[in-house]
Amino acid sequence: MTTNPVLAAVDDDAAPLTHHQLRELYTLMAAVRHLDTSAVAWQRQGIIPGYAPELGQEAAQVGSGYAVDRTRDFVFPTYREMGVARAMGLDMVGYMSTHKATWHGGMYNPLESRFAPIQAVVAGSVLHAVGWAHGQTLSGNAAGDMGVAMTYFGDGASSQGDVHEAMNFAAVMKAPVVFFIQNNGWAISVPTERQVAGGSVAARAAGYSIPSLQVDGNDVVAVFEATRSAFAHCRAGNGPVVIEAMTYRRGPHSTADDPGRYRTLEEERLDAGEDPLERFKQRLLTDGVADEAFFADAQRLAVEEEEAVRAGIADLGPRPGAEMFSLVFQEPTPALQSQATAWREESEHA
Amino acid sequence: MPETITDLRLKDDSTETDTAGVQQLSMQQALNRALDEILAKNPKAVIFGEDCGRLGGVFRITDGLQAKHGEDRVFDTPLAESGILGMSVGLAMAGFHPIPEVQFDGFAYPAINQIVCQIARMNYRSRGTLPMPITLRVPSFGGIRAPEHHGESLEALFAHVPGLKVVSPSTPHDAYHLLKYAAARPDPVIFMEPKSRYWQKGPVDVTNATPGTAAHDDGGLTGARVAREGRHLTLVAWGAMVSRCLQVAELAAEDGIDVEVLDLRWLKPIDAEALARSVGKTRRAVVVHEAPLTSGLGAEVAQLITQSCFATLKAPVERVTGFDVPYPSGDLEDEYIPNIDRILFGIQRVLEYRRG
Ligand SMILES: Cc1ncc(C[n+]2csc(CCOP(=O)(O)OP(=O)(O)O)c2C)c(N)n1
After folding, report:
1. What does the alpha-carbon distance between residue B227 and residue A212 come to, in Å, rounded to a whole number?
2. N or C terminus: fewer CB in 10 A for chain A?
3. What is the layout of strands, in order, in the sheet containing B74-76?
């Protein structure tokens, strides 16, 4: 699709994905699809109070997350990056704990997983990615060996001032950061054309002389290759890249949303295009990379995984209330300690 | 008799002569020296903001630091406060100890989301795995006849936010040690520098190690400070208001009123024990602050005093504060910032209180 200034260090030499990797991508997408649709069902069953589904965005999420090097890169998600989390191998019970309302931000370890806490303020962590990325520069990592930050946000979030500050900071500082926009067509009820001026989010990057590309966000291989190129560009010390993955949010914004108020089923069917999972499956079949037995197996694994995560979520009892007090500061204040004491005494009495 | 902080600015209130390890420094010099030492000692400390590199900051607090420590340690950012504070989060996540500056207090507002929703919560959100050792330096309060938004009293706003700590020095010595202490903390600290005091000189004991940065205690820097002992009444103040309260105490002494001045220093956490000790002794208190009256920190202080001293208090705690108006322009500043007369009236109200 459109490319605007050309990436300086496009990873042209990078080997094409092996059959094994292609199958791995499919397995991940199938796992994500099943876990995602199940999470919506869990909400309907009262297992979790809310969830932000990503139906239709599996290719954008798995393809980009698959390009992350967990030994040196760091990802800054929003609330909708379950597929990225899964592709990066996160503890999914820890991830889902946020949707269970057990804890804000997730109960996985961000330092080990290289996946920052879940972020509910749209565009809230885009600047964090720039700061982390600049830290890689300050640490004197040699070009070619640079850790890269990747920040996810939507077309709606791109309206926030912080995104503009972040792009400007990153460009001025040549920070190794990939701005990964998942343009799923909607910010709750507001379509992209009522959200984004300047043609596209990718087009805005030109104003900061950041190389950018739009990619077919429903093509997992295209997304992976674009992200891999962007990482190579950043790692080589060439500064930031903007990727806008064009995709479609097939379901509601969240389990509390009613898309029927702003779009018809007919519009949904027409705008959504081809299902990214089905499309990839057909490609793998046509190319002889996988057979029906493989897909059946992938589905079986996805179901097993979902069952394990559901059991893990169900077992997640409430957190001990004392954590509410003990995790505010590294060095708690006397007032907070006495509030904790009072809380303990009063709740033991009750 | 200096009636305004602008007048006070001209006065050198140092009294002591130099002894070994004690230097006469302005608060600007003391802060600059502290930052220099922080950078030298902690390779992960980084200073950044608007104009703090080559210019050395509009108040020259970072003067010479870039030349000495390099452009990686002290750097200018684009002019965007949310960017500066949001970047601090990522740097802290990458293992750095950011010491960002917002140029003037009123310009912290554009960064409120990053300060309140991000910096203050990240330790909590990440279950303690992503501490935010960020010291945000904010030139604070009025008194320099600056244009709109260049003088604000934001302490109640910051102190109200779970996850933030707030401190304000009133002397060069405290500025030096409190900044070093704050920068060694694993939690975010809002460091409110009373800009009207930047040019005031005072003794700074630079040999005395700062508690929390070395195994040495220099006498309760982590709590409040009794700036003046007294028997009849306690004036509670912080930042620029401390020296004004000391002036008031001198005047009151002429009328035989022995005023204790408690410099709170920490606005979160507040040293409730020091309040109890002081007011437990004097049995009367007036809180003085520049911020508007309503929902100001004076109410918090008054409640803490009530809680510990209710039985022995001789009068309700009084407040002498700014008014519930936008911080006025230079010409009206003297009407707004508690002046000597208003503080004296406050003292009078407390002393003359009779139970109905
Ligand atoms: C600062 C802020 N304002 C409003 C909201 C409420 N809100 C949550 S998601 C959303 C729409 C975001 O759209 P987009 O960035 O396109 O991402 P998507 O949800 O489509 O993935 C809104 C308005 C919020 N979370 N944060």
Report:
1. 59
2. C
3. B74-76, B45-49, B97-100
User: Which of B147, B208, B144 shows the shortest CA–CA distance to B173?
Assistant: B208
* Global ipTM: 0.91
Q: Alpha-carbon distance A144 to A150, whole Å? A: 17
CA of A56 to the centre of ligand 1 (A): 18
Q: Is-catalytic flag, A249?
A: yes
Separation of alpha carbons A205 and B207, rounded Å: 52
Residue B66 to residues A130, A131, B33, B106, Cα–Cα distance (Å): 22, 19, 13, 25
Residue of A nearest to B83 (CA): A165
Helix, strand and coil percent figures for chain A, each rounded to 5: 50, 10, 40
Chain A's closest residue to B212, CA to CA, is A331
Contact A133 B185 (CB under 8 A): no
Angle made by CA atoms B77, B83, B88, in degrees to the nearest 5: 85
Q: What is the pLDDT of residues B126-161, one digit of tens each?
A: 999 999 999 999 999 999 999 999 999 999 999 999
- Cβ B241 vs Cβ B226: under 8 Å: no
Q: Is the pLDDT of residue B216 over 80?
A: no
Output the pTM of the full model.
0.93
Query: Do residues A107 and A94 lie in contact, with contact meaning Cβ atoms separated by under 8 Å?
Result: yes
Per-residue pLDDT band for A1 (boundaries 50, 70, 90) equals: very low
